[in-house]
């Protein structure tokens, strides 16, 4: 029996995690569930999974207590605020933490889980892009096990040799696949008029709003290139991206002898979630099997700078001073939020990101406080860029 904390349990990854957990009541017990503001959904999850703790933003804590009382849920204690997220991630009862908060807000609880040696299931890619090598050191120092949940990185992890000690010796490069998102074939000149609804309508995956917009700009793949660099310790030039619109191959590893290993499956996040939960074993995920006879052709194309300039910021940030990936992540969070609130044009998200990355040359962050200060500084600069790009 493993005891779990699910950070961001009301989101797309959080709810799919609970879907897998519910299939295996003998294997997993829920210790804590957390959400930012969806009181009713969190209360419903508490009724079903009976966690010891439920964490929500302080402003909604009383409402959650009332909702739990109304449902007759007596065994769940409500905690409020960001510090409580760290507490339920680090509690001694917990074996594994699903990190499914979106954005930089997830860094501190991820680090708390890492420092207390948990099995850390990382969906929250922004936390790693912000924390970078320092985050990986915290994982090592805490004796934690970091398992990627992002489908591409789960695919790579499944294809890589078992021992990380031989990765550098055997692996020539990794190839991340990208679906191309909803605008793969749209005239780049027409992207100015894209609405949040259009950007969030992904052809293959149903996801939270932020990652959906990132998929449409391909900043999601840029974040994933950076994520792969830190996770697998490969040089930026050993990481490649190919567009594969069917999302059947989730990523590939090319060995020194030019043999290529790929991981395939239907586009269903419950597969990498189940793999992270059960690793190194395998459990039922609820996903449909691939049907090769009905699948049709798989196709591939190279991403171009003209259509997807955001992608190339990944290598630019990795070539910059330590902390540059944190700057890029912060700018993008600000730009995406402004776009979702209809304060920034879709085609100017890139301008804000590139402009902020250029404007700020960070000094090496040392520790969580430094990283959060750098994140705040980059956000302030991105806000200034927003003014510049206002209609
Ligand atoms: P989502 O928006 O659906 O859910 C986010 C969750 O985080 C919610 O439970 C929300 O309450 C919580 N949250 C948001 N802001 C918070 C804050 N400031 N403090 C505490 N909690 C907060 O997002 P999602 O699509 O589930 O994505 C979660 C993470 O997983 C992201 O980092 C995303 O990039 C990554 N990811 C998602 C998918 C997917 O298919 N959805 C795939 C790969 C990776
Ligand atoms: Mg992904």
From TrEMBL:
Query: What superkingdom does the record give?
Result: Bacteria
Sorted keywords for this record are: Isomerase, Isoprene biosynthesis, Magnesium, Manganese, Metal-binding, NADP, Oxidoreductase
Q: Which cofactor does it need?
A: Mg(2+); Mn(2+)
Pathway recorded for this protein:
Isoprenoid biosynthesis; isopentenyl diphosphate biosynthesis via DXP pathway; isopentenyl diphosphate from 1-deoxy-D-xylulose 5-phosphate: step 1/6
For Mn(2+), which residues are the binding ones?
150, 152, 224
Q: Where are the transmembrane segments?
A: none
* Residue intervals of the 1-deoxy-D-xylulose 5-phosphate reductoisomerase C-terminal domain: 146-232
Q: Which Gene3D superfamilies match?
A: 1.10.1740.10, NAD(P)-binding Rossmann-like Domain
Any idea where the DXP reductoisomerase C-terminal domain is?
264-380
Which residues does NADPH bind? 10-13, 124, 126, 208
Q: Which reaction does it catalyse?
A: 2-C-methyl-D-erythritol 4-phosphate + NADP(+) = 1-deoxy-D-xylulose 5-phosphate + NADPH + H(+)
| Annotated binding of 1-deoxy-D-xylulose 5-phosphate, by residue | 125, 151-152, 179, 202, 215, 220-221, 224
- Pfam families the UniProt entry points to: DXP_redisom_C, DXP_reductoisom, DXPR_C
Q: Does the keyword Membrane apply?
A: no
GO biological process: any one? isopentenyl diphosphate biosynthetic process, methylerythritol 4-phosphate pathway involved in terpenoid biosynthetic process
Sample GO molecular function, one term: isomerase activity
Task: List the EC numbers from the record.
Answer: 1.1.1.267
Q: Domain (1-deoxy-D-xylulose 5-phosphate reductoisomerase N-terminal): give its ranges.
A: 4-132
PANTHER family noted in UniProt: 1-DEOXY-D-XYLULOSE 5-PHOSPHATE REDUCTOISOMERASE (PTHR30525), 1-DEOXY-D-XYLULOSE 5-PHOSPHATE REDUCTOISOMERASE, CHLOROPLASTIC (PTHR30525:SF0)
Q: Which family does it belong to?
A: Belongs to the DXR family.
Q: Tell me, what does this protein do in biology?
A: Catalyzes the NADPH-dependent rearrangement and reduction of 1-deoxy-D-xylulose-5-phosphate (DXP) to 2-C-methyl-D-erythritol 4-phosphate (MEP).
Tell me the protein's name. Answer: 1-deoxy-D-xylulose 5-phosphate reductoisomerase
């Amino acid at each position: 029996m493993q005891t779990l904390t699910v950070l961001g349990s009301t989101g797309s990854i959080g709810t799919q995690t609970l879907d897998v957990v519910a299939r295996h009541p003998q294997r997993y017990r829920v210790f804590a569930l957390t959400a930012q503001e969806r009181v009713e959904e969190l209360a419903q999850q508490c009724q079903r999974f009976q966690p010891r703790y439920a964490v929500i933003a302080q402003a909604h804590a009383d409402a959650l207590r009332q909702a739990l009382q109304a449902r007759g849920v007596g065994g769940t204690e409500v905690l409020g605020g960001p510090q409580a997220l760290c507490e339920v991630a680090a509690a001694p009862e917990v074996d594994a933490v699903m990190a499914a908060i979106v954005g930089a807000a997830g860094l501190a609880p991820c680090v708390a889980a890492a420092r207390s040696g948990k099995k850390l299931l990382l969906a929250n890619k922004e936390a790693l892009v912000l924390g970078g090598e320092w985050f990986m050191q915290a994982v090592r120092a805490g004796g934690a096990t970091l398992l990627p949940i992002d489908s591409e990185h789960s695919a790579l992890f499944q294809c890589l040799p078992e021992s990380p000690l031989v990765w550098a010796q055997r692996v020539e490069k990794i190839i991340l696949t990208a679906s191309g998102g909803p605008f793969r074939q749209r005239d780049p000149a027409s992207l100015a008029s894209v609405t949040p609804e259009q950007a969030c309508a992904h052809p293959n995956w149903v996801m939270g709003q932020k990652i959906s917009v990132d998929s449409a700009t391909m900043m999601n793949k840029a974040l994933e290139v950076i994520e792969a660099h830190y996770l697998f310790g490969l040089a930026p030039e050993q990481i490649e991206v190919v567009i594969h619109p069917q999302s059947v191959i989730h990523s590939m590893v090319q060995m020194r002898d030019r043999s290529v290993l790929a991981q395939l499956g239907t586009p269903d996040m419950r597969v990498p979630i189940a793999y992270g939960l059960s690793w190194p074993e395998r459990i039922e995920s609820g996903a449909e099997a691939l049907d090769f006879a009905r699948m049709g052709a798989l196709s591939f194309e190279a991403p171009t700078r003209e259509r997807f300039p955001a992608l190339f910021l990944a290598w630019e940030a990795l070539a910059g001073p330590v902390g540059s990936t944190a700057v890029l992540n912060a700018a993008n969070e600000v730009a995406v939020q402004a776009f979702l609130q209809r304060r920034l044009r879709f085609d100017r998200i890139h301008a804000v990101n590139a402009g902020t990355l250029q404007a700020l040359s960070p000094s090496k962050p040392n520790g969580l406080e430094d990283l959060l200060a750098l994140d705040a500084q980059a956000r302030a600069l991105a806000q200034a860029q927003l003014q510049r790009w206002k209609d």
